[in-house]
Structure formats: structure tokens, C-alpha cells
Amino acid sequence: MKNLDTPTLNGLTEMRLRALSARLSDERSRFIGFPAALDFDAVGLEPIMRTLLNNVGDPFVRTWHGMNTKDFEQEVIAFFAKLFRAPEDGYWGYVTNGSTECNLYALYVAREKYPAAPVYYSSAAHYSVPKNVHLLGMRGVVVPAQPSGEMDYAALQQLAGAQMSSAAIVVATIGTTMTEARDSVTSIQRALQAAGVRESHVHADGALAGAYAGLLTPRWPFDFQDGASSVNVSGHKFLGSPMPSGVVIVKRADIERVRRSANYTGSIDRTISGSRNGHLPLILWHAIQRWGVMGFKHRAEQGLALAAYAHAELQRIGWDSWRNPQALTVMLAAPPEQLIFKWQLATADGWSHVICMPGVRKAMIDAFVADLGEVRPH
What global pTM score does this model have? Predict the structure, then answer.
């Protein structure tokens, strides 16, 4: 009879878990087409992962239950606030379940500032942006992108001028989904000023490149000192996390308009999700302690070098390909479907891409290029 006090897994369940582990290990060896760090290390975290952690409510407000990691979350927020050059003692933020929630929160804050303002975003922006605009009942205006994927600022100026609105909300994409193009916050601000827009909230969606865009030379203009009002980054992409995660940073003055909920937990809540994963801040804190700013810069430089190598190898075999400056992403003409599935390549409009995230190795690129060489017409 099964002991209900200390239940165990049956043989079939254990077999299925072993099969899953083997399958994922195989998939991981060919994971080069989507942005996620493969070198996550959980050393020291294993015992804590068996503990319930709920960071319910505001990360800066103590709750009545102690099963949380809010102190670690505060350190994560402070790290990214400094990285994004947020106003000292003038920022607020929290760890989310991903950048879709980050974008939703930033747009929510912007809507509370400028309820009637249109939301401008590039045609190359992440699909979560128009989805969130719809969810919030806002009015979206799509701005054409340049061939590189970067926003067309002349088109933004023309569209903003035609709207005749004194305020505007703009989502700047810092690393577009397909080409890793980056929108310039300073160029966006200039376009809005030229269009006669007097007030604005520019949100920098740095889900992909936000963690390293400010560490490279030349430095890309995207953060608070460049004119952004909010910035976000994904934790599972460049940093490394076994679960999707994100961090959103906003100006403290802006969240005063956001409704607060007092509740039975003892903590006010300005977040979207309320109950929040307390393991995610700990995982991101662990990555920050492991790498630090210089380590993140080194990771970016390694990825850029591998992307340059991948691009050169594709050119060597005559495969149509290109790459934006300072991008970990290499665009290539879409290969046959069996290779798209084998190497898990994001593909759209006849183009696929390889993303040289931390953990992608030269041997993986070599094996991929070898596969392409087998199908390339001679």
C-alpha cells in the first residue's frame, strides 16, 4: 500500500522524467535560434529551490509572512537601476515573470501619466507591445522600421505631427526580435520635439540587449540619462535563468499615479501579478554575484566575437547572411525546414537567425554550418 505521508514516484513516472531529461539535453546541444543563456549555474541554490518563496506585493514593503526574498529583489533592482542610469533614489521596480509583463507595466504607468496619448511603436517591436496596448485600451500607432529593423525616426516625426497630440508614449525596442536592431531613445526624443510633442514617456524595451547595450563601445543611447522614462530587461536571455523572468525599472514619481492595493498580506501592491515568484530574484541575484558588470561585458564581447565568426563562416560557404553592428544575432536565408527544426531557428519572411548567447559554443556553430553545407546547391 502506498504511504500517503511520504509518497514516492512509481517506475513509469521516473522513466518519463528520465526521458524528458535526455530529450532536453539533446535539444540544448542545438539551441542556437532563440535568445536564452545556456550556461546557467545553480550552485548553492539547490536547497532553496525546494522552499516556497512568494514575493507578494511591493518589493520595498515588508509583508507579514517571511517566506520571501524581497531583500535580494531590492539588490537586483538596485543593480539594474544603476546599469540603466536611473535617477539615484528616484526609481522603483520589481522582478516580473518576463518582459511581456514588464512592457505591460511600463505602458500601464505611461497610460496613468498621459491617458489620451497615442502609443508609437516600431513594426519590428515585440508582439507583446500591440497585445499590451490592446489590453490597456490604448491607441497604438505603428511606425515603419528601416531595413535593419531600427525605427524610422522621420516616419515617427511625421506620424506624431499628424496626431496633433501634446503628449506621446513611445516604445523603443533595444534588440528587435529578429535582427537585434536597437531604437535610439535620443533620436526618438528629437523626432517628438520636431513634431511639436511637449511631453512624452519613452519606454525602452531592453528584453534582449538591455543587459549589455550600455557596456559596449560605442555606447547605445537607450537608458534614463538618454531620455527613457522606463526600462526593462529579460533575465533568462543574456543573464541566465532556468525560468522566464524580467526586471522593470520606472521613475518613482511616475508610480505615484498607479493605484495601490492594501491587502491581507500586510504589503501594498503596485505590481501586475500580485503573488510573485520569489525564486526568480534569487536566481538573478546569483547571476549578478557570479558575473558582475565586468563579467557581463566579457560575456557580451565573447558573444560578439562568436557572432562575427558565425557570419564569416556563413559567407565562406556562400550562404546569404548579414548582421547588425554590435549584434549577437546573425541573419541568414532560411534553410530547409528540417534544419529549421533541428537547430530551432526563429524564422520569418524567408529569413532565419542564429543568436550567439552565452553558452553557445563554436562547435555548435561549426556543426550548424556543416549541416548547411550539405544542403547548399553546388
Answer: 0.95
